Amino acid sequence: MVYKYLLLLTALVAACTAITVPVQSQTSKAMVKNFITVQPEILQKSRHARDVHPERLDVKITQDSGTFTLRLTLNSKLIAPQFASIYFAEDGKEIKITDQPNCFYHGEVLEHPEWQVAMDSCQGLRGSFGDWSNKTQRYNIEPLNQNDTSLEQPHALYQADDSEDEGECGTTHEHDIVSPNPLNLSEEELDRARRQTSSGTRIIELTMISDRSQYSYYRNNMDNTVSRALALANAADRIYRNINIRIVVVYSIVWTTGDRSQFSTSPDATLQNFRTHTISIRSQYPSDAFMLITGNDFSGNTVGIAYLNTMCGSASVGVVQDRHVSADATGSTLAHEIGHLLSMNHDTSACSCNDPSRRCVMAAVSSIPPPQSWSSCSSTQLNTFLSSRGSCLYNEPTHTVATPTCGNGIREGDEVCDCGSQEECDDPCCDARTCRMAAGAQCTKGECCTSTCQFKSSNTICRGSTGQCDIAEKCTGQSADCPADVFLQDGSTCNNGQAYCYSGQCKTYNAQCQTHFRTNKGVDECFTSYNTEGNYFGNCGSDGSNFLRCASSDAMCGQLFCQEGDFQNTVNSVYILQVGVYVPSSRSVKQCVAFTTPPNSDVISPGLVEDGVKCGSSKMCYEQRCRSISSLGIPQCPTGSNGRVCSGNGVCNTRGQCSCNNGYSGQICSSSSVAVNECLNSNGGCAHTCVDTSTSYRCECRRGYQLATNGRSCNDINECSGNHGCAHRCTNTQGSYSCTCNSGYRLGSDGRSCTLIPTTAPTTRPTTAPTTRPTTAPTTRPTAAPTCGGRLTATRGSFQTPGWPNNYPQRDFQCEWTVDVAAPGYAIEFRIDTSAYGINGRSPCSTDYIQFFNGISNGARSLHKLCRFDNPGAITTTSNEARVVFAGSQNNRRPVSRLGVRVTYTLIDIDECATGTHDCQQQCRNTVGSYTCSCGSGYTLDSNGRTCTSSIQNNPSDSTCGGRLTGSSGSFETPGYPNGYPQSDFQCEWTIDATSSSSRIFFSIDSSQYGINGRSPCQKDNLEFFDGMGPNANSLAKVCGLLNFYDRGLPTVLTSSSSARVVFTSTDAYRTASRIGIRVNYWVI
């Protein structure tokens, strides 16, 4: 899934090619009106300098208002060891230059420790320094004579904001985007993606491509064009090093003879063309990302565009317009676009930004001075990316492009180590004089190097497994470095065989739903019913203009449907959808939620099912298709002479290579150092049972336990979280579980069922008509409950905790009371006796407490949980049953009170009309102990005393225009559907009446052909759904036009009562939209 973003400016700088005379700038198009002439003084170069661009450089700049002393340190990581600058001759021949000098620095200002510096000394001093949070304290410097390379020549010094404009970031909505995650990586790409750093620093290997317009701007000078690209990368690197990411330029390509991908004033088209070009050269110039630097202007205010969440993939590309302002300003744009590749979205008001300017790097509106800080949202999004797909950035160059200098603290060239000068070195493994290992040392640094400078023994785990689909790496005993990080082969089973591994993760619908809604996958029927429609409700992506229908076989790989939950928004401008399907097998409607983006959005919906999710036996989703795993070209591992993969002594990894078990080695894990019965040695490391095999061993667990992902430990199975079979309560135990019953019930002989303990009810249920009840509550003598729990059946009474009011025991115990009064139609009201009340504990009442439940079942909803002196007043149930639990404990830390509590209860009348528990079809009036039904104007009450018959006449006199619907399911449609309804004033009304008061009605629009003349707020032609049949019934939805349901996020309608009214209104209004009409499906459930 790929998204792209644009960076826009509200005002472009003037199209001038130089700073106002006498400053002949090759940097800025803008006019600098105020500058002063300064002559830098070189105070000190590093004592190990062997080059015109020393490792360390102190520069003094004096002006009227004071002195700035710049302490510069060479950015030795900026240029990769394999770096080459490349251009093309007239005949198209590629010319490669590899001796690029490194003249790029970061630094500090000694007089202002909080200030920063990004500068180069390629031709004089050029760059920026100052306080990036204050535009009046940030300065640019550049030489007056572009042909003089001296650092001590006259330079122009001016405030940076004198040549820059602020801007904003925006998006467009037309682009055809493809998947960034091809499975068929070359061996070279795998090597580059898996080499590891020892420091945890991430490395972005970047290819910078300068187009013909950029080359022309720098007067067809190859050196100046390449230097500008490196200066931009140097500025961006200074921003990223704050979050332990470094930018290393591996290639700088200049299109000297003409553009190799077509530029368009449309940024979308330029990005797509550039991406197509990079696909053809990616193997030739292996990189994590490609960035095009253009001197052309886009239409509007766009100055940058990139895809989202594509780093290291085939769409890891972006375009930056060089406005030829200071390098740190355009470099900030470069950092912003690289941020999108790393999955960082635009900041919103919900993101916190600690920068004094309140603008961070990923702000939707850019600012001057350029932002340097990262928001809380960017940090979260980056961490998510790094945890799932960041392994490709653990690639550290082995040396840098600079003259090796032993003692400068930077490992370069053929140096084994460099710990600084002899005075500075604190590494016992490194000889500071020679930059070689100390005597007797085998290694200096690395995960497999001990503190005594020796290789760690073989099979020592140096990188643990992060999950079911990751493989723990072990030291070889011959190297200080941990072997490359590899994962289980794509397509390996995980999650107890219910899912497949893909890119090192166990991919499941549930995991994706947890990310977006904190819930699990919706029912399959949501996928199969909606994804074949090819619209907002369901699709398999879009072609940039229209949604794509899923083939029936691919429906499980289209839009993701989850159970209802709280949406966790990660992308702007999404539509949240709630849909439902009728499931005939269960005679119920299942609700699902989803989210998507418009079909012409520049953001491919993250609400699509991810690649790697299991969609069938030996099948996984890939690019929104359900494909057999064998068709994906996954690298396969060799088999041994016994016909088993890796000889059965290892597992296949993502490289198509064998990762061998302990004791085995070789390409097919066939070499055994010694034939042993691993089970004889500490039980093979198995927690329970070790089973020796002919070639290895395996661990097994006793009944009630399951094997952990490490293959050795045994985890208890919590039977109570699944289908345990207990009628009331399930208590998990180690390796088993037990069932118990609520108070007043007896456990059956099967150990699972519960039977009611017989008692004599004090009252009997009235045998009155369905709409009447006793006008007064049944009355029995108040009873006091047993001291610790029991069953209460009286219509009023009380109970108290043990020992009340003289303190309850300080020990672990629990009391449970059930209140079960034979008086349907009444509720129970509890009140706390505050005359003597106190429960030890404090919020959230985790130890001592009293808790009230709305019913007697184990799954009844909690009404209140109280401790200390909490008193919510009346606690009321919704029925004549309740359960109350009191828990005491040994806890004596910070005791509050142990008086205990006394609770009184009584029955109260339920207002059926207010709670919706009545049987009236239209209007309900509550009475004491009962209720009566009536009908609205135009309706008469039927003989059953609860339903109403309509007297409204439909117009026109068409059998399809309105009527009473009585079936359990069916459909209705507007007159003339789908050939168009009449352009005249008329109204159709349908009523649906369920036979049971507990039934609900579910509606679904047939969106294959749908169109009602009008637009929101639907004041003319419309279809309106009412929750009930009466004239005062609440409106559920009012639709018109073509996309009203989508706009409002209401693709389905579900009533809350047992009847409904649907009214279609037509007018003679001039046709401004479709008059196809509409078909509505309904189910009574």
From TrEMBL:
Subcellular location: Membrane
Main localisation: membrane
Keywords: Disulfide bond, EGF-like domain, Membrane, Metal-binding, Repeat, Signal, Transmembrane, Transmembrane helix, Zinc
Renumbered residue ranges of the record's region Disordered: 161-181, 759-787
Domain annotation Disintegrin: ranges: 403-490
Entry keyword Transmembrane: yes
Residues binding Zn(2+), per UniProt: 336, 340, 346
Domain annotation Peptidase M12B: ranges: 202-397
UniProt-listed Pfam families: ADAM_CR (PF08516), cEGF (PF12662), CUB (PF00431), Disintegrin (PF00200), EGF_CA (PF07645), Pep_M12B_propep (PF01562), Reprolysin (PF01421)
Domain EGF-like: 633-670, 716-755, 909-949
Protein name in the entry: Disintegrin and metalloproteinase domain-containing protein 28
